[in-house]
Write a structure and sequence with these properties.
The structure holds 2 protein chains of 2 kinds.
Chain A (H helix, E strand, L loop, with lengths): L1 E8 L8 H18 L3 E6 L5 E2 L8 E2 L10 E9 L2 H9 L8 E6 L7
Antiparallel strand pairs in A: 1-5, 1-6, 2-5, 3-4
Chain B lengths: L11 H17 L4 H22 L5 H20 L16 H7 L2 H15 L6 H12 L4 H7 L4 H17 L9 H24 L5 H19 L6 H15 L24 H14 L7 H14 L8 H14 L3 H14 L2 H12 L9 H12 L3 H12 L5 H17 L3
Helix pairs in contact in B: 1-2, 1-3, 1-5, 2-3, 5-6, 6-8, 7-8, 9-10, 9-11, 10-11, 11-12, 11-13, 12-13, 13-14, 14-15, 15-16, 16-17, 17-18, 18-19
Classes of the chains: A alpha+beta, B mainly alpha.
């Protein structure tokens, strides 16, 4: 088993209606309970924060600093057998469609 | 991950959205409706994120209120908004208990009432009133408002933007008017709720769920209003009318969503509880001294609900009421109804003559129901070729999808029945 970080990008939820949000909650709960132990953690990020680019450069605060579709909205940490399984878990998530999802394996030291 | 899989009540987010937006607008002032909406949207998104990880809390409404309060405090800190009802200049300090006060149960209702009066303010046009009511008080999303009102999202966005701009620029107070002004304003509010209801009831939208929800929301707001203006006869009559119409909702379409003619509807599907509620409000409405069009319309709808079959309906009484309605609120649709009811009193031929006369007037030229009725009546008289002509005219007047399907079905039946 390996851990994967699912990075959600975009500003997907802001334009949804209350009913649609409630529907996503229901879909999400179904999705997460299906994942069971393979779900490790997940958080949404606030939109503000700071961007530091170098020791000499000014600190850019109060994002968003990027194109809306590039904003990192949140992340999940999951466990999966390999990249393929992680991809299929991400693609079954109710967030896909609202956000784009980057699926990246955590680089832990591996035994040769 | 929580093992709990409690369900939250249907439309919780939507109902809470309407309440919270009213409360926050009360707090910030009408110029800040958009800010109130943004904060509530954020609150719902936060709920979605937390509840999907930790499970749904025991008291979801309380949770939303707590988070909304915290977001208000953050907003005050961040922007240091000078609230309208305070002396300009000093930035007021708010303690938690000040903010708690606006979230008290009776304040919530008060805020919603103020919101109704604000959304229905006469400085806004009718279209904006309806759109704004749906968006802020009923918690519909822009897409849902657009679907309900059969227009595009960009049109709705424009209407909402303009309405909020008018509210800001004219500095509308977030209040319930008093005394004489209350009476006139209440009339506007009642009319807006009537129109909101009609949007749902008569809409040609093919989405029957959204239509019903629109009607139920109009009823909910009218009842909220009635808790405070119970002696208002027009309001009671309006609620009565809404109950009678919603009671018959289930009988109007078949399993496949196709139209069932009123005379063919299964009356056992009508909701008896709502019919008796309607009667109750109709009785209450009779206490007022004035007779409004709402009274007459409610009474006609009630007459239909009380009849155990189409044939046993008291058509003479209904005819008289339509004559009365015509004197209070003259409009060509009432003439059309009178002509149709004539078929139950003096027969189809007399009725058709009246309909033919009506079709020579310009007012109803684009109204598909006139030729549709002429078609159906001719069909009953076995004049199949005339029937087909009328039904095809009706079809050419852009009826909704379900209505078109109905007309096409009738044309096919005529062709089968026609001799030769």
């Amino acid at each position: 088993m390996q851990e994967f970080l699912l990075i959600l990008k975009g500003d997907g939820m802001n334009h949804l209606s209350p009913n649609e949000l409630q529907q996503i909650l229901a879909d999400y709960n179904a999705w997460a309970s299906e994942l069971g132990d393979r779900y490790i953690t997940g958080q949404k990020l606030e939109e503000n924060g700071a961007l530091l680019t170098g020791k000499e450069d000014p600190i850019i605060t109060d994002g968003p600093f990027l194109e809306p579709k590039e904003i990192i909205a949140g992340f999940f940490l999951i466990e999966a057998k390999d990249q393929d399984e992680a991809n299929s878990i991400a693609s079954s998530s109710p967030h896909l469609g609202l956000y784009s999802i980057e699926v990246r394996p955590i680089d832990y030291p591996k035994m040769k | 991950m929580s093992e709990k899989s409690e369900q939250i009540i249907e439309h919780l987010f939507r109902t809470e959205y309407g309440k919270l937006v009213s409360i926050l607008t009360h707090f910030f002032g009408t110029s800040y409706i958009q800010l109130a909406e943004d904060i509530v949207q954020d609150t719902l998104i936060a709920a979605l994120n937390h509840w999907s990880v930790d499970g749904i809390p025991e008291n979801p409404t309380g949770w939303l209120v707590q988070v909304a309060k915290r977001k208000v405090l953050n907003e005050l800190k961040r922007k240091k908004i000078i609230l309208k009802h305070h002396n300009a200049g000093n930035v007021p300090e708010y303690s938690d208990s000040d903010i708690d006060a606006v979230f008290l149960e009776n304040e919530i209702e008060d805020s919603q009432l103020r919101m109704i009066f604000t959304c229905c303010h006469p400085s806004l046009n009718t279209e904006s009133q309806v759109a704004l009511t749906l968006k802020t008080l009923c918690g519909f999303g822009v897409k849902e408002v657009a679907n309900a009102l059969l227009t595009s999202e960009s049109t709705i966005n424009k209407r909402l933007y303009r309405a909020k701009k008018t509210i800001r620029e004219t500095n509308l107070p977030f209040t319930i008017p008093q005394g004489k002004e209350l009476e006139t304003r209440l009339n506007t509010v009642i009319l807006t709720l009537y129109l909101l209801f009609n949007e749902g009831y008569n809409s040609s939208s093919s989405d029957s769920i959204i239509k019903k929800e629109l009607c139920l929301e109009a009823l909910r707001l009218a009842k909220l209003l009635a808790e405070h203006f119970e002696e208002n006869g027009e309001l009671c009559a309006l609620i009565s009318l809404m109950c009678f119409h919603i009671a018959r909702f289930e009988g109007r379409l078949d399993d496949r969503g196709a139209i069932i003619l009123f005379e063919d509807q299964d009356r056992s599907l009508w909701n008896k509880e709502l019919i008796s509620k309607g009667m109750q409000y109709l009785k209450m409405s009779m206490k007022s001294t004035s007779l409004s069009s709402y009274h007459i319309e409610a009474s006609i709808a009630g007459q239909h609900c009380m009849a155990d079959s189409f044939e046993n309906t008291n058509w003479l009484n209904i005819y008289d009421q339509y004559v009365l309605l015509k004197s209070v609120k003259p409009n060509p649709i009432i003439d059309l109804n009178l002509a149709i009811i004539q078929s139950k009193i003096d027969g189809l031929k007399t009725s058709l003559e009246m309909l033919n006369k009506l079709s020579q007037k310009e007012m109803l030229n684009d109204y598909y129901l006139l030729p549709a009725t002429q078609g159906i009546f001719n069909m009953k008289l076995e004049n199949y070729s005339e029937a087909i002509n009328f039904l095809e005219t009706a079809l050419s007047l852009n009826p909704s999808e379900t209505e078109s399907e109905f007309l096409e079905k009738k044309i096919r039946e005529c062709k089968k029945l026609a001799p030769g």
